[in-house]
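Document type: protein sequence-to-structure record

Subject area: structural biology

Format: plain text, a pair of labelled lines:
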Amino acid sequence: MLIPISEIQNNSDHYKFKAAYDLALEYQLEKVLYFSKEVERGLDQQANHMPWCISDKRFSYDLDALIHNLSILTEYYHSWVVFSYIGTTAHEKTKYVPLKNDQERDAKIDKIFKANSIGVLKISQNYRGDFYKDCKKSFIQAYEFLFVGKFYEVYVLNNYIKHNIVAMSYSPKVIFGDRQMSFPFLYIDKPFDRLLNSSVLKWLIDCNLDINGKVIGSNDDYFVDIINTTGHSLGKIGSYNIYHINGIDYLKSDAIVGISIESIVEMAHELVLNIVEFFMNEAKGIFPSEEKLRRLVNEIKMRSPKTINKLLNIS
């Protein structure tokens, strides 16, 4: 915790908030692990079945819960960074705000700091250095993997699913060389893409991509830049083009856009591991249950996600 002890030693609310957010984040990490394993079981069962659809509704419920809880995990982590990792004397409701890693990033972080009284010393007079700058540096370090990008796609998807239905049961079998693969994905079709927040997912349904997976035409946009700098084509499944963009397998046609369910599992793994790694390396001693964290790491690594991009790279 960065805030000097003299700022909060007589503030009982601080210790209550810190303990609550430590426990809440631990609980949420375990919950994401639980639903990840439930979805993994469904995926492995489907890989051995001939039908091109997943008929067990429990799989859809588990997938829906995984997406929802991944989104909640980003919000819990935000609160943990504010109240437990950096610390503040103002213990009020905080709000997760997605942050793009662009020229407006620092100004938006300043707004978060102002809203939560971060970087402000009311009592301590002997702090060595610039406390505000130290808090900002630590915030950026803690948030580095959460800047709008890969994990933000799940956040956008969850906001959509909260108010709209998404198709989750289609699971075509694909032959690449001598390898048969199951490619279950969820998708959104037109005109419902209008209900998506700005994201790679939303851009893909409206833009045209060349054979290399780059956007055709000049579009000065944060998400177009992600597509152009990280994307490449993986091939086709029938009339659908498959692209790997920023670590996610996407499916696209003129009428629909989709995300590989294995990629969602992979995002769950990576987000949990990123948070746990940060605890272990940068917040050692702040988070109390290191034994539980090590168990989470071991369990999350038991099954490697079977994305098309990974399977093609193996062969």
